[in-house]
Write a structure and sequence with these properties.
The chain is α/β, with parallel strands linked by helices. The protein has 16 helices and seven strands. The strands form two sheets. A five-stranded parallel beta sheet has the order 2-3-4-1-5, with helices on both faces. Strand 2 (34-37), helix 2 and strand 3 form a beta-alpha-beta unit. Helix 4 packs parallel to helix 5 (100-108) and helix 10 (184-196) packs across helix 12 (217-239). It starts with a strand and ends with a helix. The model has no long low-confidence stretch (mean pLDDT 87).
Length: 309
Amino acid sequence: MAENYLIIGEEDFLVDAKVKEFVQKFGGQDDWSLERLSGWNETREKLLDMPMFSGPRVFLLEYEALAEAKPDPSQAGELLAGHENVLIIYTRNKLDKRSRLFKEISKNAKLIEVVAPKRHELTKWVIHRGTELGATKCEGGAPENLIYLAGTNMLILDNELRKLISYSPEISVENVRKLAVRDLQTSIFELVDSVVGGQVAKAQVAAEDMLRTGAEVPYVLYMLGRQYRLLFKFLFYRQQGCGSSEIQRLLPQMHPYAFQKLSAQASQLNLKHCASGLHAILEADYGYKTGIQQGAGLLQVLLAKLAKK
């Protein structure tokens, strides 16, 4: 009997945590039974291909990868209703719930929406997450200072909490102001500069430096993915004939320095290389979350792939 789940949310940390929860629930430690699907054609092919004498398998599918092929919604609904596996569809973006594809998937999948905490609830989450990660004390005002400096992205906050706790299990306002979000954005710019320039060794040294100064592997993967998604959008708009000022208006609001760096990096890539880079980052993220690959070695292999042209 088909088991389909649609996990939606705009907060990477929460969506990834929920996906991981379902992967562990249905996949366990059986790596062979877990597989990421690349799009509609592979989904259609593999969901109905049940090896003899094997149990149901667990498949992961990003909603955008499915929607990109523009499948007939009724056919997608029939496929979801007719297989005998576990399918976990997820997205980290806002979806158009009025679309026929979304409505058809929702009929045949359990919808799970993860909503990010706001304001005081986010402060409570920082305190709770800090305790989970090993903090013995959280000084009054420290969570608010951390949110002010690092922003509300929960993956970044999680990374900053880990860094603070590795420095001291007592999270103080002083330590937050001294350590939080220290040159990490600049480090990402330097890392991507090296990658798009084909400088593998320099990129790997930059990644090692980031890990040594407290950045966690999921955070580095997230920031790499974010920068490559911006690069892809930049290159796409440029291919459509847009000038720099128009592209800057179309992209999410960013500091002029950040846009200048993005423009310089884009000049060394094309859409094909950028798309393959995004795919490599996605595969590395999948490998990390499922335990297939771990640690600095994962980043070393990924950076070598990204820098190869």
